[in-house]
Specification:
single chain; 226 residues; alpha+beta; OB fold (Dihydrolipoamide Acetyltransferase, E2P); five-stranded mixed β-sheet; three-stranded antiparallel β-sheet; 31% strand
């Protein structure tokens, strides 16, 4: 037996709170709002309890039966830090640990701004390099005491790529940042020289730009300075 449709009198749209007409339902003075009216509640119960049309069921059955096609988008993680006055990033998978700044011991008969020397990391001597020197980044001017509280203390970052470990000092650490490849913006035309050669693109992290470094080129440059 086919259920006969019932015509709903949507009085709430004609003379209720959602009406634009001057005429108003006399019950509004008592119930204050159509949501509190038994007529509105009864109409809602009918709409929820009514029999579902056959075509409606078939339509949504076919929708849910479709194979869901998901757009594959690679999500990457970058380790963001500051060297001098520049914010930079490396693939987070390269970062082994971050330790407090220690003494960097210079190597005898070596006068290089890139190879700073060696540092003691958990009892093992590791080569320490300056990424800022490779990129030609000038050192940030010493801040006054009133500004020091806003800058995290410098750290030593231990990174490893293809079994080769290096250590480099950083002025400040932001931490990890997840991004999709589509978020990587091209370098501005104002960026040139070493920074342009070693930078894959620009990431916008919060309200500042970060240069994502090409770790393969960076490691090649480090090895040339050993």
């Amino acid at each position: 037996m086919v259920e006969q449709p019932i015509t709903i009198d949507d009085c709430w749209n004609r003379i209720g709170v959602w009406s634009v007409n001057k005429e108003r339902c006399p019950e509004l003075g008592r119930v204050m709002h159509c949501r509190n009216c038994s007529v509105y509640a009864a109409a809602g119960r009918y709409l929820l309890d009514r029999q579902v049309p056959e075509n409606y069921v078939k339509e949504w059955t076919s929708v849910f039966a479709r194979v869901k096609v998901e757009k594959q988008e690679n999500i990457n993680s970058a380790f963001v830090f500051r060297a001098g006055g520049e914010w930079l990033a490396l693939p987070a998978k390269l970062i082994q640990e971050v330790v407090d700044m220690g003494v960097i011991h210079s190597l005898p008969h070596r006068n290089s701004t890139i190879l700073r020397g060696v540092v003691n990391i958990r009892g093992k001597l590791e080569l320490c390099f300056s990424i800022g020197a490779i990129l030609g980044i000038e050192r940030l001017e010493k801040m006054g005491k009133e500004d020091e509280k806003y800058i995290s203390p410098p750290r030593l970052v231990v990174a490893e790529r293809d079994g080769e470990r290096v250590v480099f000092p950083v002025s400040e650490i932001y931490g990890s940042f997840r991004y999709a490849e589509g978020m990587l913006q091209p370098l501005p035309v104002t960026v040139s020289g070493s920074r342009a050669a070693f930078t894959r693109g620009i990431l916008c992290v919060e309200n500042f730009d970060v240069g994502l470094l090409d770790d393969a080129l960076l490691y090649e440059a480090l090895k040339r300075n050993v």
